[in-house]
Amino acid sequence: MPDAAPRRPWLVLAICCMSLLIVSLDNTILNVALPAIQRDLHTSVSGLQWTVDAYTLVLASLLMLSGSTADRVGRRRVFQIGLVVFTAASLLCSLAPGLGWLVVARMLQAVGGSMLNPVAMSIISNTFTDSRQRARAIGVWSGVVGISMAAGPIVGGALVESAGWRAVFWINVPIGLAALFLTRRYVPESRAPRPRRVDPVGQVLVIVLLTTLTYAIIESPERGWTSPLVVGCAAAALGALLGLLWYEPRRTDPLIELRFFRSAPFAGATVIAVAAFASLGGFLFVSSLYLQNVRGLTPLHAGLFMLPMAVMALLTAPVSGRMVASRGPRVPLLLAGTALCASAVLQALTYSEHLPTAVLVVAYLLFGTGFGLVNAPITNTAVSGMPRSQAGVAAAVASTSRQIGQSLGVAVVGALMAGGAYAHTAAFTDAGRTAWWIIAGCGAAVLVTGTLTSGRWARETALRTAERLAAEETPGAPGTPEVPGTPEVPGASGTKETKETVNT
């Protein structure tokens, strides 16, 4: 079917969104099922943490490899492998006889998950070649996160109550199989025209950096920042980072193009992704503890209570995509940072055991609005203006930034709340106020970074970076590369279309 993708771009988008749905839904559903898993498998709280954190650790470590591999060997091929691995691992999770088996199966899930979202984003980037259509498509893509937030706690609670915790993994199987069939039928193959050489040193350095950094973040609340293990992991992460900064620019085909970060919008999108998802991780953590430990709600009722946040994220994501398409990323970024900051400040100023429900709902609505608005501009900026031959790597940087940000948010807020989580209510609310001020700081970071990296100066750095990358990859190619942050730049597609090989 040679013309399948051009005639059905929105079907390709829907197929890619199915992969995002099962990955996002898996996380929200799992949180609801943790108490049932603890009772059935007779595990400790730390065991439950590793059920979640093992997935995060492996996913963050492999996103870069999966993105660059897809650019080399074929995006559809890697995407299909990811669907097979994730679906099979979900089935293994449902059959796990003990905690150890469950953790290993979750790690295998993460291997498959690393091949889905960044690769799907690069497929979308190459399917929607018009910048306005791509921005709208990314808005729809971001809206799926809102769907998973809204449906996850409700679906998870219903499954756990009706069929047990193992059912939360069964739901991935039919969706994964359907996505696999549709991918083989309708998604065209695409890859870089010149296969890039493998960068084993860079990959090892990335794995060491992300693994040790994530482990240090996860373990620091329990072990302390002065623990030899935590200090050693932090030192290893710093050494790996310095090694990447020294080694990667000297490679002909580096795992990650550090030259991307010469573009202020791209660098800003990375920082904003970390700050926004740190605020999300902190928000979900502290809100879940507050609703269940202080207000005494069940997990299902707590999920329903946070429904206003999820609904607003769902509604504002496509709006943000249209705003990026018509006006660029500046307006949605400024609105997102303001809404996130306002939500956290409102709770920091009013936080108490008897916080009025109306105030809480307004704060959740504001947070959902900000989070829904922030995804489309950072995702669009991450993949726009970069050569399509490296779209997978660019998308993987954005996905990795999200993962690291969410881990950081949970770790910092978790360390802060650890002392008050099981103490008296006053200690919990005191710690909660400080946590909300930290989340407000993340919102302020989105606002400030969005302001600095979406203006004329930032667009000029993006243009220079895009022109330099295009000239180096295709010497003498005519046309002007597309500039992230503007709805359309004449000549963009003419420069880039020659760089991509598409087969069906």
| SS content category | mainly alpha
CA radius of gyration is 22 Å
Report the biggest beta sheet as strand number plus sense, adding barrel if it closes: 2 strands, antiparallel
**Shape summary:** globular
CATH superfamily descriptor of the largest domain: MFS general substrate transporter like domains
Tally of helical runs: 20
Cross-sheet strand order for the largest sheet: 1-2
- What is the overall pLDDT average? 77
Number of strands: 2
User: What is the percent of helical residues?
Assistant: over 70%
The CATH topology name of the largest domain reads Growth Hormone, Chain: A
Instruction: Name the poorly predicted regions.
Output: 1-6, 476-504
Q: Give the terminus-to-terminus CA distance.
A: 6 Å
Strand fraction equals under 5%
Number of domains: 2
What series of H and E elements makes up the topology? Answer: HHHHHHHHHEHHHHHHHHHHHE
CATH class membership of the largest domain: Mainly Alpha
> What is the second-level CATH architecture of the largest domain?
Up-down Bundle
Describe this structure in words.
This protein has 504 residues and is an all-alpha fold. It has two domains: 434 residues, Growth Hormone, Chain: A (Up-down Bundle), CATH 1.20.1250; 51 residues. The chain contains 20 helices and two strands. The chain has a two-stranded antiparallel ribbon with strand order 1-2. The relative contact order is 0.14.
